[in-house]
């Protein structure tokens, strides 16, 4: 499998003349994620995050700071055009931006095109054509399955099929957009008939999002050896879930209104190139598990297709914010708890000829660790609502209350390299209308 | 519920100076469906079908034949802009086109903008943002459920929830685009492990498609009294299904690769306005069934929210075509076998705040009649592959073979009105690559 290579942009000694990028920023010069921003209600523009600032890419191109870059890809209001280009063009842009931001001689020319991030609004980085959510967090699948089938938590297909289903593209929103508590049908286990009202079991789910770059034609599968070049990068994804609606509606065709009221993503695309130093071997399958079927097996993918990313979920309630208490950690753990790699997910999706397009988003499914400190949803943390947790404010939670804010973050780390972050994926729960 | 009204465009005595529209055409002047066409590899243009011809809308507007119409809605390469406009603008366009095509004094000016349909290619009428497939054909749900659960074919939620799930927008193709037999995982009931290969249980499904017009903002449900104005019109939908993949993959999150390799639609949008004379009462629910929950209940919808449309599915094999045999009827029946109305489907979809957009497509799910001559899929017709049918060519079929072509058609009929048709939804099965 062709994977992005480690190059000079990953050198740990590299620093930027943007001082805030050096030190403990999510966005050091080794990261350089792409996104879409606007200033003061102005037009949407393409940018790169650097420390506490954003480099305006079209402005930098106009100032002739990005030689060798196809400037026509930088003038739109979404990253779809850049995502549709060969990965080599994205890499050329990364190299040019790295040069601008590390080389002090560019400081004077580039500074006018650098915006303080706090003065900008961040938007969805791409027009999302189709959104698919997978279920590759095996500990999550086992934990949830055990609540329904204690003796047989994982279904027979789980270790052969990267289980996935289509989700709703139109209701994906960037970090910061509040979530209105949804209304819907639920039926109590002992109730005769369903009732309609605001969800009483609103939950979060910690996922990685995979951004598709170049697509494939309808009818033409993507061999796993080629899957890497179809992945532009990654983001964080909170797959909000109304567990009461879900339990009532999901048979036989899967989740629908329990999920499609809103999903929240972090707005920066952490590129496959930025993550090159953080590729690790896919963990060996437990003894007795089947090997991946041949179309899902690639030696290079097994050797380096997983990612050394640590995920974290925190909660902040209205009472905690009033008391000045910081967000409380709910859970966290490594992305290596994915049973399938991103390449396997992409290849499986296209294996029947289904066409993926630039800007499509794939969710991994909830990534839980095997132990309770790393469960990626309140459904797991509260054991289906049976065991409340107590927050630093003294408040108890089984599921989310109005005013609660969920904050997802992630960091990629590897010995000898500068860590990079994903930025924030946050949203506050507002009361039902 | 506000529904389109019967007006002068539905007068049975109205005829067109386009002679082929008068008589037994799917597209008399009472129909006037919207679509997207191109000529000889040229650009996509918006058009209206009339008899065996297509009226070029932008050309007609340039020739000042469409007074009072917003011509800017007619110049693009998809109908999304027109669909996003208030229904009154679509109605104004219908009235203007009706005037052009019925009034002989416009013949000379309009003829240069009339194309023979056989010289045109037809395309998807809209850029489809999200595609959702429902499951409201109760006889289909019962037939399929009985194959898995003979004693309990309908799940407890069926009569409360218009069951639906998200499908794949990117792989929807217009009538005429061949279908390549998909490859995928299947597991025989007595097999230890799955195998990978071309589907051996490829099926069709007869559905109606519902085109969304004006959308709703995220977080703002659509009251059922308003649902009508969000529906632009209807089409035919063949929801091709690989039953072997489906049986293996669908638990717990629903159909995925069994469906998303391709879906075929008829290319003309049969508008809500054209269907005004064909509105009928939703059939009374059987005794003992629950009433729709209040958010899904509207007196006007119950009185006139169903449609007097008769669906038909036919097959043509390679051997039949060689022998000059016409397509063979597989099944057919009335759309009133839907347990929920289009308005109930739309309102349920948005009831949790999910935002629908102009150009979104909703499938009804397979519409089967209660008796075997009206089953809408081979899964039902062949009783899960156990009972082959014999075709006029002497060939037997349980599921589709390479070279088979499926043709869906539909007609709306009502006493005292000119019948209108949906055009063709056809595609031929090509061998797996």
Automatic annotation (TrEMBL), chains A, B:
Binding residues annotated for Ca(2+), in chain numbering: 133, 205, 207, 239
The name this protein goes by in its record: fumarylacetoacetase
Organism the protein comes from: Sphingomonas panacis
Binding residues annotated for Mg(2+), in chain numbering: 239, 259, 263
Biological process (GO), any one: L-phenylalanine catabolic process
Molecular function GO labels: fumarylacetoacetase activity; metal ion binding
Annotated TM spans: none
SUPFAM superfamilies registered for this protein in UniProt: FAH, Fumarylacetoacetate hydrolase, FAH, N-terminal domain
Enzyme superclass (EC): hydrolase
Record keywords: Calcium, Hydrolase, Magnesium, Metal-binding, Phenylalanine catabolism, Tyrosine catabolism
Limits of the Fumarylacetoacetase-like C-terminal domain: 139-427
Cofactor: Mg(2+); Ca(2+)
């Amino acid at each position: 499998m062709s994977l992005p290579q480690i190059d000079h942009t990953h050198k740990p000694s590299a620093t930027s003349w943007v001082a805030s990028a050096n030190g403990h920023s999510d966005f050091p010069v080794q990261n350089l994620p792409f996104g879409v921003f606007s200033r003061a209600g102005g037009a949407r523009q393409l940018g790169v995050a650097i420390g506490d600032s954003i480099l305006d890419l079209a402005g930098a191109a106009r100032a002739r700071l990005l030689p060798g870059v196809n400037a026509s890809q930088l003038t739109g209001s979404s990253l779809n055009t850049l995502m549709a280009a060969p990965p080599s063009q994205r890499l050329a842009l990364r190299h040019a931006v790295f040069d601008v931001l590390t080389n002090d001689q560019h400081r004077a020319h580039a500074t006018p095109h650098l915006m303080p991030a706090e003065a900008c609004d961040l938007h969805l980085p791409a027009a999302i054509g189709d959104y698919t959510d997978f279920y590759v967090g095996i500990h999550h699948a086992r934990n949830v399955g055990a609540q329904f089938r204690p003796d047989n938590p994982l279904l027979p297909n789980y270790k052969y099929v990267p289980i996935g289903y289509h989700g709703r593209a139109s209701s994906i929103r960037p970090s910061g957009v509040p979530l209105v508590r949804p209304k819907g049908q639920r039926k109590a286990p002992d109730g005769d008939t369903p009732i309609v009202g605001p969800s009483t079991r609103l939950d979060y789910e910690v996922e990685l999002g995979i951004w598709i770059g170049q697509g494939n034609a309808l009818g033409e599968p993507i061999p796993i050896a080629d899957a890497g070049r179809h992945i532009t990068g990654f983001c964080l994804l909170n797959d909000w879930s109304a567990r009461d609606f879900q339990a009532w509606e999901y048979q036989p065709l899967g989740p629908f209104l329990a999920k499609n009221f809103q999903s929240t993503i972090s707005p920066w695309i952490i590129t496959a190139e930025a993550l090159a130093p953080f590729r690790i071997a896919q963990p060996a399958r437990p003894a007795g598990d089947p090997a991946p079927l041949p179309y899902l097996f690639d030696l290079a993918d097994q050797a380096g297709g997983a990612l050394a990313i640590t995920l974290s979920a925190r909660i902040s309630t209205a009472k905690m914010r009033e008391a000045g208490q910081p967000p409380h950690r709910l859970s966290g753990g490594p992305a290596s708890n994915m049973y399938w790699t991103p390449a396997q997910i992409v290849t499986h999706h296209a294996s029947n000829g289904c066409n993926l397009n630039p800007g499509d988003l794939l969710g991994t499914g909830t990534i839980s660790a095997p132990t309770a400190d790393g469960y990626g949803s309140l459904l797991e943390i509260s054991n289906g609502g049976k065991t409340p947790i107590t927050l630093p404010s003294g408040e108890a939670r089984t599921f989310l209350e109005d005013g609660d804010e969920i904050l997802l973050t992630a960091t990629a780390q590897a010995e000898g390299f500068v860590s990079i972050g994903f930025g924030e994926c946050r949203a506050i729960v507002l009361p039902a209308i």
